[in-house]
Specification:
Number of strands of chain B: 0
Order of helices and strands of chain A: HHHHHHHH
Order of helices and strands of chain B: H
Number of strands of chain A: 0
Oligomer: heterodimer
Strand content of chain A: under 5%
Radius of gyration of chain A: 20 Å
Distance between the termini of chain A: 36 Å
Radius of gyration of chain B: 18 Å
Number of helices of chain B: 1
Helix content of chain B: over 70%
Helix content of chain A: over 70%
Largest interface: A-B, 39 and 28 residues
Number of domains of chain A: 1
Distance between the termini of chain B: 61 Å
Largest sheet of chain B: none
Largest sheet of chain A: none
Chain lengths: 238, 42
């Protein structure tokens, strides 16, 4: 991480990586979604709607992983004052917010035929909605700090404080057993049958690569904007 | 209502949202880098 803290060194790696990650991600995500729609059997209980799994689970993972990334960037900013940390946090936020919103929307669409309702103030659903609001708050706060030429310390503290919500989301299905099912995919294995599960790693990897590519694009945009701003300031002072 | 209607709706939401995110990020990066290149050339 320290190695990448230098913007010039970062750009040397980020420029080729952006395109590779995007195309590999799109291919894997499309392959996984096509396989999920055509090559897997319907679930014995949920029927065809189980196929929503292949977009809902990656969206949930990336919504949460995005905030973990913001928290890591915040630690790096507050402890080591890495010049790219605040930029990384601001770059992650729109992608994380998008995936958190997709998770909520696809979950709601899945809930209607499965639970008979679009929405329920269940622990998992509510904590995920809070995550979306945290993202929106972070985006607003970071933009306001950037506009006032701040270092982004407030946004970093907000990012760290918001990370408290991540274990709440993860354990919500154990703490409050209401509508959302318990954990079915863990580090050691899954309770989902292999015939249904196999396209999921494709969409997980694919959307993760697309997410990483979007973050790199936003970081490159911010670095280019900073370069223009610095040149304009220098020209104005001469 | 057919279960496929829900499946198609969920996939449409995911694909449209991710496509919009990628297009926005790509567009903003290209515009910013073009402006930076332009100012460097000057």
């Amino acid at each position: 991480m320290h190695f990448l803290a230098n913007p010039a060194r970062f750009l040397r790696i980020a420029k080729p990586a952006t395109g590779w990650l995007l195309w590999i991600g799109l291919v894997l995500a499309v392959a996984g979604m096509a396989a999920g729609l055509n090559l897997t059997p319907p679930d014995y209980l949920q029927g065809e709607t189980v196929r929503i799994l292949y977009v809902h689970v990656p969206a949930a993972w990336l919504g949460m992983a995005g905030w973990a990334g913001i928290a890591a960037a915040a630690v790096s900013q507050l402890v080591w004052r890495h010049p790219l940390s605040a930029i990384a946090g601001r770059a992650i936020a729109p992608a994380g917010a998008t995936f958190a919103a997709v998770c909520l929307a696809t979950g709601s669409i899945w809930g209607r035929p499965t639970w008979g309702t679009w929405w329920e103030w269940d622990g998992r659903l509510t904590s995920m909605l809070i995550l979306l609001f945290l993202y929106l708050g972070y985006i607003g706060l970071a933009a306001a700090e950037k506009e006032r030429d701040g270092e982004g310390r407030l946004a970093a503290i907000f990012g760290l404080a918001g990370a408290i919500n991540l274990p709440v989301i993860h354990y919500s299905v154990l703490w409050w057993r209401t509508l959302h099912q318990g954990q079915s995919i863990g580090v050691t294995g899954s309770s989902i049958d292999g015939a249904i599960l196999w396209p999921l790693p494709l969409t997980m990897l694919g959307f993760t690569a697309v997410f990483a590519s979007v973050v790199l694009m936003r970081m490159r945009a911010e670095l280019a904007e900073a370069k223009v701003e610095a040149r304009l300031r220098r020209a104005a002072s001469e | 209502m057919s279960p496929w209607a829900f499946v198609v709706a969920a996939y449409a939401v995911a694909v449209i949202a991710v496509a919009a995110l990628v297009l926005w990020a790509c567009g903003s990066m290209r515009r910013a880098e073009a402006a930076a290149d332009e100012i460097s050339r000057r």
